[in-house]
Amino acid sequence: MLRRFQLRWRFGGFVGAVLLLALAAAGATYAYTRGGGEAAPVPAAQHTGEPVQLQTPTPTPTATATPTPEPRYPSLIDGVELTEAEFRQLAARFPIGVMIDNSALAAPQYGLSRAELVVEAFVEGGITRYLAFFWRNDASRLEPVRSARTPFLYWALEFDALYAHAGSAATGTVANAEAQIREWGIRDLDGLLPPAGPAFYRDPTRVAPYNLTTSTSALREAAARLGLASGFPTVEVWPFKADFEGTASAPLAGAIELSYRNQPVPWDLRQWQWDPVTNTYLRFYRGGPDVDALTGEQLRFKNVIVMYVPAYVADDRGHVLLEQFGEGRAQVFLDGRVVEGTWRKADRASRTRFYDRQGNEIRLNRGPIFIQMVAPDSFVRVYWRVTDLPPMPPYQQPAVAPDPATEPDHPSPTLEPETPTPSPTATVPPSPTSTPTVTPTPEPSPTATIPEPSPSPAGAGG
Questions:
Q1: d(Cα 208, Cα 413) in Å, to the nearest integer?
Q2: Signed CA dihedral, 189, 192, 195, 197: sign only
Q3: How many whole angstroms separate alpha carbon 340 and alpha carbon 352?
Q4: pLDDT bracket for residue 50 (50, 70, 90)
Q5: Engineered SS bond to 160: which of 206, 233, 241, 414, CB 3.0-4.6 Å?
Q6: Pairing of strands 369-374, 117-122
Q7: Taking a C-beta distance cutoff of 8 angstroms, is the pair 353, 361 a contact?
Q8: 127 Cβ neighbours under 8 A, 6+ residues apart
Q9: CA-closest candidate to residue 125, choices 335, 268, 330
Q10: pLDDT band at 70 (very low <50, low <70, confident <90, very high)
């Protein structure tokens, strides 16, 4: 009889099990005779004290589909991962490169914290200039926009970028950026010429030429109107990685001091301090935190790259050119460490790439990048820890030399939108009375790594 119920369990499942338990609880079972009539009593089952083994059903596994990870796509400039929808929305957008002034009267700048890549390099008179790139990010205000220089044109070509500037060096020499923009087919947005002029305006709280202002949205509208943004950009993306991946064996580099001079001149000194919480390098400049006047945020970047590039003065107006083809020393700072290596660029059409000492291309962290293109004899000092870094010296404004670029007070045609609200920090610094004295080079920290400089051509630093 027990076997009969076991068979019913196999075929009846849960109903059979319930029936079996109910009959057992009653203490007896009844069977009906084949011919009908009254049921004959059947003796109750004898209990032996051993547990009755009931067979339980084996559950049938439910087939579940393994979810396919959503594909991710690297941003064209800084490698930040985007969803397919995000990438499709941006795919036809061309990067924008904007020339931003860095002379004494240019501070504070607007919009640099929104950039995905900033390149800083010599121009003339011992000063530098920035080229800020935007693709996935936008900036509602970019100021002050300044004139084009040849070394930055190579970067604009690498990113197939719309190139925003205010005039150009027109020298008749190898530093003739004005002619090179035309000859090299750069997507030109010159704020001083009528086609793109409406995308720019003058900030009335500053003096010209340190007050030309624009935005990424205005530049994109101008590019569309001029037919410069049709099709898709062609960009070879750098290799990227997750934070802290593959850098554990690299030397520590918690802080950096850098000057484009061959010694740490106070008005030209920059410091980078690694923040382990965000895994970014914070920028300090002109005596304190380097703050974006647009966002009020201190500039911070996931990657800081120092490129050592020979430089020379190309003409009697002091325009500086850099020897950007070939290769040279590079230091890539990321994850609180430094990867020593080499930069390489074969020709105008190729990408600048970075390789470690074993010849492997260096993978950057996904996120904003700052490139410092310095001379081989520029002052660069690396510290293991932020606590090893000497205090930032007070800022001493240099004597302001006449600006070599001739720029009118207003772009042509003039188009000024609503007057911007003056920023409490957007004031013109007072004119200096003397040239600051150079402070002596401090003794190196025991933890510092000092590069071995090679001499640069005369006049490279200005």
A1: 16
A2: positive
A3: 16
A4: low
A5: 233
A6: parallel
A7: yes
A8: 102, 103, 462
A9: 268
A10: confident
The CA radius of gyration of the chain, in Å to the nearest whole number, is: 35
The domain 86-388 having CATH identifier 3.20.20.140: the answer here is no
> Does 53 score more than 90 pLDDT?
no
In this structure, what token pair is assigned to residue 397?
Answer: 């404004």
Answer yes or no: are the C-beta atoms of 405 and 192 closer than 8 Å.
no
Domain range list for the chain: 86-388
Q: Measuring CA to CA, which residue among 107, 451, 447 is closest to residue 262?
A: 451
Write out the E strands in 18-143.
30-31, 40-41, 72-74, 81-83, 96-101, 117-122, 128-134
Q: What is the DSSP string of 121-136?
A: EE-STT-EEEEEEESS
At 398 the pLDDT is 81
Residue 307, φ and ψ in degrees, nearest 5: -105, 125
183 class by beta-carbon count within 10 Å (0-12 exposed, 13-18 middle, 19+ buried):
exposed
Distance CA 1, CA 126 (A): 104
Residue pLDDT, tens place only, 158-207: 999 999 999 999 988 999 999 999 999 999 999 999 999 999 999 999 99
Distances 69 to 83, 91, 327 between C-alpha atoms, Å: 11, 21, 40
State how far the Cα of 37 lies from the Cα of 414, in Å rounded to an integer: 114
Task: Check residues 119 and 396 and name the one with the higher pLDDT.
Answer: 119
Distance, in Å, from the CA atom of 408 to the CA atom of 11, rounded to the nearest integer, reads: 95
Whose structure tokens read 């430089």? 311
Report H helices in 226-257: none
Task: Write out the two tokens for 106.
Answer: 């240019």
Q: Across 127-262, where does the E strand assignment appear? A: 128-134, 162-165, 187-190, 201-202, 212-213, 240-241, 255-259
